[in-house]
Amino acid sequence: MLDAQGTAAAPLVQVSNLKMYFPIYTGLLRRHTGDVKAVDDVSFTIRAGETLGLVGESGCGKSTVGRAILRLYEPTAGRVVIDGDDIPALAPEALRKKRPVMQMVFQDPQASLNPRMTVADIIGEPLDEHTNLTGQEKLARIYELMDQVGLNRAFANRYPFAFSGGQRQRIGIARALALNPRFIVCDEPIAALDVSIQAQVVNLLEDLQDRLGLTYLFISHDLSMVRHIADRVAVMYLGQIAEISPRDDLYANPLHPYAEALLSAVPEPDPNGAARQRIILKGDVPSPANPPKGCNFCTRCPKVMPVCREIEPKLAEAAPGRMVACHLINPIPSTG
Amino acid sequence: MTDTSAAPIKLEKPRSQWRDVWVQFRQHKGAMVALVLLCVMAAFVLIGPLIWRIDPNFIDPDPVKMIRLRNKGPSWDHPMGTDQIGRDILARMMFGGRISLAVATVAMLVAIFIGTTVGVLAGYFRRIDGLLMRLTDMFLALPLLPLLLVMMFLFRDAAAKVLGPSMGTFLLIVLAIGVTSWMHSARIVRGEVLALKEREYVLAARSIGTPARRIILRHILPNVLSPVLVAATLGIAAAIITESVLSFLGLGFPPDFPTWGRLLYDGVDAIRTYPERVVWPGIAISLTVLCVNYIGDGLRDALDPRIRGR
């Protein structure tokens, strides 16, 4: 496993100040009266061959980050540099040419496969779009991909309904691998699977990473699974990143109060183990259409200070390789 | 076969799904019966006149004979009887069927084509959604019968001049019916497309870099097929009836030109004394509609891989 400091690999993905606002139109004239700030000023980098875990509660904008990076949504602002190209600025045809580098594995394997296409057609679709293989070569590549993800070649003519959830997810992974991508966004790829299958799929993803040198953005709300697969972990809250840390540091000693609360909720496998102090947050997540003035977490933070309600904390380095957005960790230089 | 050595099971080449569709279609008894019946009807109207060689518009020039031949019941000379001026009804049914079936099929195709195109474009491209749906609402709000009448009235002579009287009328009727009956399928298709385009497999296709036109053809259209088929089968029935309404109002085909709808209306006058004159075209129309409905049902099942598998 890579450690944050130990490697000098160049960043493959560089996201800076990414914003994704969904406009709200109200009234008879459909006037633009506000925005749902699903992703608000998010920056991070992912080095080649690394896995960045992206965790956070439902509705905090994890999936939106993944989709905006691949420009499945048009980001409101910000730069996303993947392998040297600024994705939001690419022209449509250039973006199409760029697509093979970055792919996505979707959350719901049932919904992400067209029910009227056979497995061979589904896996072959990227090949149809981006290569000029003959029928024979295409078939050979499809079989190769099915081998890679552990699907029996005899299934090529079947339709998605005939598969279990885990097998469907393998089809989705094979489709994402078809064009030899370097970067794959895994959008909660295991959330819809049952536990025994989750392990299989995660092991498959790790195995593929080792063999093909893939870089993952692994979006999940399953903290134990992220601990297993990720090298570094970013914790999101209400559209912003609260903390980015190397995995081991984060799980051993979370700095941001939200990360601390989140990690205290991970179920303990050993019931006789040391009873942990669970931090139970009060209240609800504020609306992303109208976030609090200062820190987004100030309404629920157990360690809230007056400054938190006034000034928005910026993501800053708190320890080597660890970035935290919290006044408690990074006090602002007193200006009076 | 490629690389069969690795797998113990013999690998099948990805095969065309149309064979599977046909295999499944044959499982649907109702659809097969309907298909056979529809073929029989098509043979009846297409090949029938070559065997039963009586001119459908033949009126005996001798007035005495003509009067004797009027309103005959079924006999060997005239298996379906004769009408009020002594024309053979069997021959009229055959010729009428040609027109009715042709009008119904082509008008339905026109309506479905326009409806699906408008529906898919409106559903998929948000920018033109408002415009296209307001257009649809406008067509729905128009009083159709007066519109049809005005269209026929204005363009009939012009079309007849260019394409000849029967072809011109045919084309005009087909277009008129098609252009005034696409709105419901457009609405149904738009609703389906709106739901489908948010599905993850469409998102997956976009992340692959599939252009919009191929997303529509590959992912959207096959999945809106069932509502389109239902709309199409209902459209055939509506087209036959609309054509007969137009003929009845004197703005469709010329009055001596038999169509099933026309025969039905002519027969209504004498329904108490000669009910069979209403029954023959009535049966023909209902049977066509029923057959098309069953075939559509079977086709929908056959095209759905979830049903096809078992």
Automatic annotation (TrEMBL), chain A:
Alphabetized Gene3D superfamilies for the sequence: P-loop containing nucleotide triphosphate hydrolases
Gene source species: Gemmobacter aquaticus
Name of the protein this chain belongs to: ABC transporter ATP-binding protein
Membrane topology annotation: Peripheral membrane protein
Record's GO cellular component terms: plasma membrane
Similarity section: Belongs to the ABC transporter superfamily.
Any one Gene Ontology BP term: transmembrane transport
Domain of life the protein comes from: Bacteria
Entry keywords, A to Z: ATP-binding, Nucleotide-binding, Transport
Upper classification of the organism: Bacteria, Pseudomonadati, Pseudomonadota, Alphaproteobacteria, Rhodobacterales
TrEMBL record, chain B:
Key word Thylakoid present: no
Annotated ABC transmembrane type-1 domain residues: 97-296
GO terms under cellular component: plasma membrane
Compartmental location: Cell membrane
Transmembrane segments annotated in the record for this chain: 32-52, 99-125, 137-155, 167-189, 220-241, 278-296
Alphabetized InterPro entries for the sequence: BP-dependent_transpt_permease, MetI-like, MetI-like_sf, OppC_N
Membrane topology: Multi-pass membrane protein
Keyword list, A-Z: Cell membrane, Membrane, Transmembrane, Transmembrane helix, Transport
Stated family: Belongs to the binding-protein-dependent transport system permease family.
Protein name: Peptide ABC transporter permease
Species the sequence originates in: Gemmobacter aquaticus
